[in-house]
Specification:
With 340 residues, this protein is an alpha+beta fold. It has two domains: 175 residues; 143 residues, Sulfite Oxidase, Chain A, domain 2 (Alpha-Beta Complex). It contains seven helices and 13 strands. A hairpin with a 2-residue loop joins strand 4 and strand 5. Helix 1 runs antiparallel to helix 2, helix 2 runs antiparallel to helix 3 and helix 3 runs antiparallel to helix 4. It starts with a helix and ends in a 13-residue tail after the last strand. The relative contact order is 0.12.
């Protein structure tokens, strides 16, 4: 009788904890993308421990509510099964990237696919939470539940530490990651640096770089004049696709091009329509780059001119820049991540 009565409680505890972990995984994953790479390492660490916690809870989930759900024969059980499999695949892809066991194929890196599946999980998670609600109770935070959660978190942290130690000792590519989780590719070798774009952006056709239309503060600027003023700037592009690359960018600081700026921010826009807003205090850190290592940018890397933003992740490095202009919009009045 004791075993029978404890099973529903355990299944309920596992379901509730998994729901909280999925929410935490989504929040830490998205936030690590949105903020600068200086602080995202802590979020990536939390994200990893959360993912490993879900893997540790998977057997209990299978023995409990999953088995019971299939016995009941609900028509939607297969949707729930797809959701569960997608969670496991998403976490596994993150582990494969972290350990260096598999980085994906071409632009479909393990980490990018992990992120894509994470986005697909959100509507499925909302549906599952509504269709299979687990309403919190006061008893859910009793001493036993707190101890169980501590054991799961401790085991996941120990598993993560073991994973990191093994990758460091055995030397797979996963050991070369930055705190953000990205691995190095093509530093100071632009030909090897990957070429990626954000979601539905399309690379514009650049036939004559010197005739490129660029306006800075309302004043037309030629690519030739930027080359004349460009100086090497070492900066690391840390892509949310899971790689980083340091280059000596031939660039000009925006503070040298924009003086006596009025407004609350500066809008940097691409020919594709993509844009980002930056605070006026950041102008000295922002640069317009026309090349790297003395050579012009490649079209897929933003030629003829792109923005470089040291300390920020890839989505802030606007490519194919056509306009830099003061704006009255505050920087917080924009999505933390581009939506298109």
């Amino acid at each position: 009788m004791a075993v029978y009565s404890s099973q529903p409680r355990l299944a309920r505890y596992v379901n509730l904890l998994l729901e909280l972990l999925i929410v935490a995984a989504i929040v830490t994953g998205l936030t690590s993308w949105a903020i600068g790479d200086r602080w995202s390492g802590w979020l990536v660490l939390a994200h990893a421990v959360i993912g490993l916690s879900m893997l540790l809870l998977a057997p209990a989930k299978m023995r409990g509510s999953v088995a019971a759900g299939f016995r009941r024969g609900r028509a939607t059980r297969w949707v729930s099964a797809v959701f569960g499999v997608l969670v496991l695949v998403t976490v596994t892809l993150g582990v494969l990237h972290a350990t260096g066991l598999w980085f994906g194929v071409g632009p479909w890196t393990a980490l990018w696919t992990h992120s894509l599946f994470g986005f697909l999980l959100i509507p499925l998670f909302v549906w599952h939470a509504v269709a299979r609600p687990v309403r919190p109770r006061a008893a859910d935070v009793d001493r036993r539940a707190v101890l169980q959660t501590g054991v799961v978190a401790g085991a996941a942290a120990a598993l993560y530490a073991t994973q990191e130690l093994l990758t460091a000792v055995t030397g797979p590519a996963g050991g070369e990651r930055r705190g953000t989780g990205s691995r190095e590719i093509g530093s100071h070798d632009p030909a090897r640096m990957p070429a990626v774009i954000w979601f539905n952006d399309r690379r514009p056709d650049v036939t004559d770089a010197m005739s490129w239309s660029l306006s800075v503060g309302g004043t037309p600027i030629t690519i030739e004049s930027l080359w004349a003023r460009a100086r090497p700037v070492d900066a690391t592009l840390d892509c949310t696709g899971g790689w980083w690359s340091e280059q000596a960018w031939d660039a000009v600081a925006l503070s040298d091009l924009l003086t006596d700026v009025q407004g609350r921010s500066v809008r940097v826009a691409s020919r594709t329509g993509y844009d980002r807003y930056f605070g006026l205090g950041d102008l000295g850190k922002l640069h317009l780059a026309v090349g790297y290592g003395g050579h012009p940018l490649r079209p897929s890397h933003g030629a003829p001119v792109r923005l470089i933003v040291p300390g920020r992740r890839g989505p802030w490095w606007v490519k194919w820049v056509t306009s830099v202009a003061p704006s009255d919009r505050p920087t917080w009045l924009q999505p933390p991540l581009p939506l298109t």
